[in-house]
Structures are given as structure tokens and as C-alpha cells.
Give the backbone structure.
Amino acid sequence: MFSCASKERRQARQGKRRGPFLAAVASGAGLAYFFDPKSGRQRRDHGASVVRHSARRLARRVRVAGLRSFGRTKGVLHELRPQQPAEPLDDVGLAHKVESVLFRDPHVPKGELSINAERGTVFLRGQVESAELIDDLVESVRKIQGVNEVVSLLHLPGTEPPHPDTHL
């Protein structure tokens, strides 16, 4: 038993001696690799390039993560802020709002429509190509906040425009 314990101690001491030796060998091999007279400069430049690009990539990822968290924080703060009730629009503002909502659609004939508003009632005047478009326009205007009523004076080509007195 005495011989086994001493053998283990001897192996442990040799292991302790091998660590620094292996580190020195690895360091020497690395130095020889990077300071080789033929290809060492190219290897050093490539290694520096890899480090530089990795650092830039890491900095970009950190910046993007920071900006995302900043945006999310602003969004949460916006949601927590109490909503102030919007002031009701006057007639001109309501007409402009209806125009901006309707004219977003490229299929709506902008030059053919006239939009007026009086005390929350929106009047649509003009000539459009189809009855379906008339229905779509009236339905779109009804969905706009602030519109109380929609009076459609729209007509198809070749038909007489309706008279506003019949709709009031």
C-alpha cells in the first residue's frame, strides 16, 4: 500500500510539472505560427481583422438590443399614460378627416368626389363608376369617428344626381 500511495504522489507531481510545460509548448507553437517569416504577417492581419469585425458585430448587436429595449419602454410608458379625450372636430376638420381616410384608397376617384360636413353630417357628392363603390364609400365614411350621419348624393354615369332635399 505504501508503494501505491507514493506512486500516486509521484504521478500528481509529474502532472503538476506538465501543465506549465504544455502551456509553454502551446505558446511557442502559437508564436511560431503568427511570426512565421513566410505567412506570419498575413496570419496576423487576418487575426486582427477577425477580432475587429467581431467587435463591430458585437457593438452593433448591443446597440440594436439597447434601442429595442428603449422603444419597448417608450411603448409601455405610452400605454400607461392616461388617454385624454379628443376634442370633437369642427365641420371643416371633419370634412378633411373624411377626405384623408377615403383618398388613401387608390381606387377612389379623387377628382370626382366632393365632401362637405355640417354639424356631424357628411355629404358625399359626385359621380362614380359603380353602385358597389357608392356602398363602400358610404360604409367607410360611417366608420369614421365623429361622423353622425352620411348623406350620399353620389350617382352613376348617365343618371341624374339626387337632390339633397329628398335626403334630409
Q: What stands out?
A: Strands lie at 113-118, 121-127, 149-155. Residues 2-80 form one domain.
